[in-house]
What does this fold into?
Amino acid sequence: MIKLYGHEISGNCYKVSLMLSLLNLDYEWVRVDLMKGEQKSTEYLAKNPFGQVPLLVDGDTNLADAQAILIYLARKYGGEQWLPTEALLMARVMRWLSTAAGEVRQGPESARLFHLFGAGTNINIERATQKSIFILQQIDQHLTERYWLECDRPTVADVAIYPYLSLAKDGKIDIEPYTNILNWMERIKKLSGYIPMTKNE
Ligand SMILES: N[C@@H](CCC(=O)N[C@@H](CS)C(=O)NCC(=O)O)C(=O)O
It folds into this structure.
């Protein structure tokens, strides 16, 4: 059975558990206690030398990084639905995975980390807030005439971007002005197999 090593507070782990659930795949949740530093234990570093969650183990396959795991799951178990193979569509979907690991991480993800764990995180909260506003405006604008980030259906792009936007309030980022994002998040919540983040607790 697939194993997901993760922690319930992590939006990156939520990306993966959400994808697994949307694909209707059974998996075992293996809790890695980030507060106790279990991700830096010798045993865990042997599985993921980066010392981070999420980590997916599927048979002999051992894969770290939420975005990489989404690609793996979509291609291996999701057919064409979640990750198109046509050159331009695939590139457009991949662009959102980069945005998740780039602008969204520097914005809402960092703001959340700061407000959950405080100044010890060395995060510049003014900068993270500014970056949050920038990327929320961009995504809201992008969604003006779209139901999904790309294609005419949900893809890994939506799964990669959704978690930290839905958690933006933890970072004291006001999402209310972004009506297109709010409507898009409601559509995601209605997908068959959708689970809230708390399912990991
Ligand atoms: N690029 C990685 C980043 C993963 C990451 O930052 N994981 C955090 C939790 S969200 C973590 O493990 N932090 C603990 C640490 O770095 O010690 C991904 O997208 O999965």
In short: The chain has two domains: 2-81, 87-189.
